[in-house]
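Session log. Operator J.P. requested a structure for one protein chain; no other inputs attached. Running the standard single-chain path with C-alpha cell output.
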Amino acid sequence: MGQYRIRRKLELISIAEEAGYRGKDYTFVTTFKDRTDQVSRKLTPSIAWDTLIWYATEPNSIIHMFEGNEQMITSLGDMFDKNNR
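Structure written below.
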C-alpha cells in the first residue's frame, strides 16, 4: 500500500529480480481518487521516476513519470511499444 518512493521501488525490483523477473516483466502504478485529492497533491512529488500514476476520475488516461518530466498516455500498449523500440 502507498505510493512508490524510490526506496520501496528498489526493494520491490530486488524481490522481482530474485524471482527471475526482468525489468520488462513488471511496472509500478500508483493510483489516486483524483488530482485534486489532498493525498494525491501531497504524495505525487515523492513518487519514484519511471512509475505510472492513474486517477480514478480519469480512467482512460495514465501518467508516466520519468526524470524531469511527465507524459500523459492513453494506451499502455503505446507506452510499452515506445519503450521497446
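Operator note: The longest helix spans residues 6-18.
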